[in-house]
Amino acid sequence: MRFLSMIRINENSGLRPSEKLMSDMGKLLEEVTKAGVMLDTAGLRPTSEGVRVRLSHGRISVVDGPFTEAKEVIGGYAVMETKSMEEAIHWTTRFLKVHGDEWDITCEVRQMETHPEPA
User: Fold this and answer.
1) Please, are residues 41 and 78 in contact by the beta-carbon 8 Å criterion?
2) How much is the pLDDT for 15?
3) Could you tell me the CATH number of the domain that includes residue 54?
4) What's the domain range around 43?
5) The whole model's pTM is what?
6) Which residues pair with 56 in a beta bridge?
7) Hey, which residues does 64 pair with through a beta bridge?
């Protein structure tokens, strides 16, 4: 089963990852990769560097960031392959705990649809 964990942050919090956090995160990512769980992960650049492309009633619009109406934004993601939702929650919890008490982060974990291989 594949899961997408979307890391929601308040990008205006002023918090930046410390060297210790980056080191601890590196160790965790090494562990989860060796366990065969982590398929892909990355942080995302700030919304000020992004755009939103929207289709509404047949019309396309493009809006430059930052997106001030958004309190929380997707700050990164992880794609995991696990045996169950419970295992995906386990690894996501480990990820959150590495950050310590000063961070306020939410991870939304959702199972990804699978499509059969072409014949």
Assistant:
1) yes
2) 84
3) 3.30.70.1060
4) 2-111
5) 0.85
6) 59
7) 51
